[in-house]
Amino acid sequence: MAIGPLAGVRIVEVSAFVAVPLGAMTLAQLGAEVIRIDPVGGNIDFSRWPVTGAGDSIYWASLNKGKRSVTLDLKSPEGQAIASSLIASAGIVVTNLPARGWLSYERLTAAREDLIMLSLTGNPDGSPAVDYTVNASSGFPAVTGRGGEPVNHVLPAWDVIAALYVATGILSAEYVRSRTGAGQHVTLALSDVMLATVGNLGYIAEVQTNGRSRGPLGNSIYGAYGQDFETADGRRIMVVAISNRQWHALCSATGLTEKLAMIGPMLEVDLETEAGRFAAREAITAVLRPWFASRPASEILAALASGRVLHGLYQTFEQLVREDPRCSIDNPMFSTVVQPGLGDILAPRIPLAYSVSSVPSAMPAPVLGADTASVLGEIADLQEQVGERR
Amino acid sequence: MAIGPLAGVRIVEVSAFVAVPLGAMTLAQLGAEVIRIDPVGGNIDFSRWPVTGAGDSIYWASLNKGKRSVTLDLKSPEGQAIASSLIASAGIVVTNLPARGWLSYERLTAAREDLIMLSLTGNPDGSPAVDYTVNASSGFPAVTGRGGEPVNHVLPAWDVIAALYVATGILSAEYVRSRTGAGQHVTLALSDVMLATVGNLGYIAEVQTNGRSRGPLGNSIYGAYGQDFETADGRRIMVVAISNRQWHALCSATGLTEKLAMIGPMLEVDLETEAGRFAAREAITAVLRPWFASRPASEILAALASGRVLHGLYQTFEQLVREDPRCSIDNPMFSTVVQPGLGDILAPRIPLAYSVSSVPSAMPAPVLGADTASVLGEIADLQEQVGERR
């Protein structure tokens, strides 16, 4: 019994790597039935690292949870014909393959006039680009860290953002189709995702208006006060004070209100403004640092929490998994799934919660090709029914 | 005349900062009419940096493009009543304020039974968290850069990802309402966005399965070959070879096929596999580095492009704006808008393109409060019509 806001929606995915698989998985997490079609033996991402000791891809298992898996010989006319029938039957297809040949929008709409197709490319002209190459051009590596040489992010942020644009693109096209009956081809380029984001966050207008952008600031926050501190026991904590309330909370919780107030007259800045605190950030950090350096993290965290100071404890992935209660089945977003090849793993459902629509709990990724027979059987039944009605 | 897939949809936003404003702006970029309600004088983000010399916020202007702006005294019962009427009339509200008092889902649904409301919080329990604090806990800063101390990302990735979950949440709830008539309260926590993403990318399962996660790798790509190189003229270029095709392209384009092939027997690795290239990455980089270091960027870029090697030129924000043709009106995603206080700026529309639905070109952000009278007039007319029909 299908549950979730998108229960009843059927989507075919022909793709690899992060953006399209994660976009389609997002729709699966909302209750859509997502059928991923791969070549026999798996697509190019099937063994992508990290892998288990036995070579099973943790990456692939994590990005394909809750999908059905069909394998076909996509180089043969027969395999392409079956894939086309599946797409026509589902009515929605998402892909990062070039939209040409059997996978062209024209050929696919011959079998399903109101098809919704979403194609992701690297650049808008179809030339390749991936998260790492798009990120280099974005401007962000040049201001990440302390400067000198560019620092790449490790979070594949552009891929994840693109994935959610994929979900948004499909849902908005479905909104149109449900009202007008018209399907359409939706296109998205990873480089445009980057450029739109850089623009939406003001970096383009900043250069055009002020002639330059901000430089690297290490872990300081631009235009407000925010800094990381080492504790007596070697942990690190990020502290943030953007609003005046947050600033006063930080002053109070550390008991340093009087000393911090000396900075205003000393540097002739108004510490009751974000700009003033940003200008005085080094002095503020100098006053705060000994307080953090002389206390263990546990004591600091308790003081910051009870004083309602915005803060975050730095964690490694290991610490996140082993020590953060938000990353456990105590968080209703998570459940334990039995993943073939991996064993019991903690897996998230969609982070959205709905007061009326239930959302499916996390499900394991399929075994490659496990649903081929059943899905093809359903298609055959469907075609037989259509034939009988004629 | 409204255009875009969401033409005819009306949304009220009561929020500040990045995630909810960007989520609502995404829906505006798809054609929805978005009315942002702020306190008189602006919300807490109205002067957020970067600012122009005259103090106009480039940040605010960039995150509120194409919205209508209404200012109300939200602390007075009158202002709250007007805001409630606006929300009831629109039928959709997005907020990062606590859903209580006049803004509680219960009070708002008294005036509009099928209301869709989306509330974003920091943590699921309603306690505060922002991109910077959530990021500290995520595990990514610990593996960004070369190790030693954590490196914060500068791209507010969690906020941007959350924004697109906001758009996805609204569209999926609208999908349900259009079929069943039922509105609902959708909730989302920034910390869950981070945790879900860390899980979707396999980092949680990696710790659980292998007992540990990967360490910092500088600008190298994990589990494949990817590295940045300095050119003779002081630029940097990111080069990526994940697939075998990409690897052979890199060998050919640099003319170093034979030398690179010596690495396999030398290190006893199979360079025809991603894992082998990852294991041999230092030797590969050592062979490639002189080729890059002895040529200017222009020559390298031409060779990599004609050889179909995946690559990205590192750029500062200034270089992106001034030198990258993708970041100009030659890219149909961009147009020049006249932004009050900022002047002519290059602004993106939504990065999605639709074969049937037109999408609105970029529009400037409103002047704060500029639409108050017209929007309240429309509400008054609407209420009068409802009264006459009774």
TrEMBL record, chains A, B:
GO MF terms, alphabetically ordered: isomerase activity
InterPro entries, per the entry: CoA-transferase_III, CoA-Trfase_fam_III, CoA-Trfase_III_dom3_sf, CoA-Trfase_III_dom_1_sf
Pfam families linked to this entry: CoA_transf_3
Keyword S-adenosyl-L-methionine belongs to the record: no
Matching PANTHER family: ALPHA-METHYLACYL-COA RACEMASE, SUCCINYL-COA--D-CITRAMALATE COA-TRANSFERASE
Domain of life: Bacteria
Keywords of this entry: Isomerase
Tagged with keyword Isomerase: yes
Residue ranges the record marks as coiled coil: none
Protein name: 2-methylfumaryl-CoA isomerase
